[in-house]
Amino acid sequence: MASEHEAMWQELGLDLAAHDQLLQVLGDGYGQIFLSQQQRPEGMEYFNFVMSEVHGLRIKELVDGQAEGKKVIGSFCVFVPEEIVRAADATLVGLCTGADFATDLVDQMLPRNTCALIKSAFGFKLGKVCPYIESADMIVGENTCDGKKKSYETLGGLVPNLYVMDLPQVKSEQGRQLMAAEFQRFKEAVEELTGIEITAERLAKGIKIVNDRREAMHRLYKLRVADPAPISGLDALLINQVAFYDDPVRFTESVHKICDELEERIKAGQGVAPKGAPRLLFSGCPMAVPNWKVPWIVESSGAVVVGEESCVGERGTRNLVEPKGDDVDSMMEAIVDRYWKIDCAVFTPNPEREEHVKQMAADYGAQGVIHYGLQFCQPYQMESLPLEKKLESQDLPVLRIETDYSMEDVEQLKTRVEAFLEMLA
Ligand code: BJ8
Fold it and tell me: Does 277 reside within a domain?
């Protein structure tokens, strides 16, 4: 498939034939899953466009920015403090982790019982099909789950610019000190990479950009409380996913624009599914582009997904950086305060997550929870059993799904989802 961006992709070192193949599969899947939906809000046009140019115009913007001296930092986790990156006029992008690629090569590097998300990151690198990882000036790995932290030892041999951030696993005073020290070290690394000193004025600007985007997402989430649901779970997930790639200011404007439209829909009683359609909450592992399998199965079975307790969802965007003072140290502390509250399953114990799931289910009027666990993801699998017991003891049914990125289990999952919906009815 000839593209005006071919020269750029070649320059970045992509394997053009493999990349074409990937875009073809992505485009077909997108058409089948997203464009076939009924009653989509018009504001989704913008997100369709971003997705169609996610490897094209968006990469060109980043590459053009680099020509003017702006740096690009890639990340795999919502613990990486974006405010610091924005403060140095750099761009933080989420790296591709939502599809299988180059699996033969990945199997030579990672154990078979590694989760699909980690394997995907390696597959995109080894298959030379991710323009984000190839254009990044720095790639940040974080010591979260065992799979990720050990795999970064191998990834370090594949990329020239891996920066590893240590993170605590216990929410103790010592743990908080470690996070604060690591955020400080990261700030210094970003300053060195960009040649920009992060002043109070710059950091305040970085905080505002990221907070504004979070507030726009909070507005969107609140609108999903309405019945009939004004937007599908698939489209809301897509917006959450696009947040990891798009220019944050433009993205924020586009989210507010679609929220204006959704408010009108709610006033008119218009929705994507009939009033009273079963409402479900997702909880668990993050779903990166193009991991749309389970929400697609759920929504094509007649239910609506009304919320995502996930890093590509509310776990990633909950809480703002709250003002704490005007100097750099106070702002850095305020940033730590905000990230410290993230209830990722790598923390032990992690009681806040259960509270958040219950709260979200109540707020959104969800009749059931789908726990989404990737195969071999121990932190989320481990939490799923006690979580299921607690929620079910409070009359909130749970369907625990364990899957990967292949399409082999679609029929089996569909049967289980349909049975779950019948049980809810
Ligand atoms: S803050 S959820 S983005 S670590 S699915 S790689 S946990 S074995 S992605 Fe995560 Fe940050 Fe936590 Fe969020 Fe490991 Fe599980 Fe794989 Fe996972």
Answer: yes
Tally of domains in the chain? 1
Token duo for residue 194:
């960009």
Residue nearest to atom 10 of ligand 1 (CA): 77
| Model confidence pLDDT, tens digit, residues 64-107 | 999 999 999 999 999 999 999 999 999 999 998 999 999 999 99
Predicted confidence at residue 2, as pLDDT, reads 61
Structure tokens at 286: 């993050």
Whether the CB of 132 sits within 6 Å of ligand 1: no
Q: Domain holding 388: CATH number?
A: 3.40.50.11900
Ligand 1 within 6 A of CB of 286:
yes
Per-residue three-class SS string for 245-291: CCCHHHHHHHHHHHHHHHHHHHHCCCCCCCCCCCEEEEEECCCCCCC
Choosing from 142, 144, 165 the residue with most ligand 1 atoms within 8 A of its CB, the one to mutate for a pocket test is 144
Q: Residues 344, 377: contact at Cβ < 8 Å? A: no
Q: Report which ligand 1 atom has the smallest distance to the Cα of 374.
A: 5
pTM for the structure as a whole: 0.98
Q: Decide if 165 is inside a domain.
A: no
In tens, the pLDDT along 19-38 reads: 999 999 999 999 999 999 99
Could you tell me if the CB of 140 is within 6 A of ligand 1? no
For residue 387, the enclosing domain spans 204-320+344-424
| CA-closest residue to ligand 1 atom 12 | 344
Domain assignment present for residue 83? The answer is no
Residue 268 lies in a domain: yes
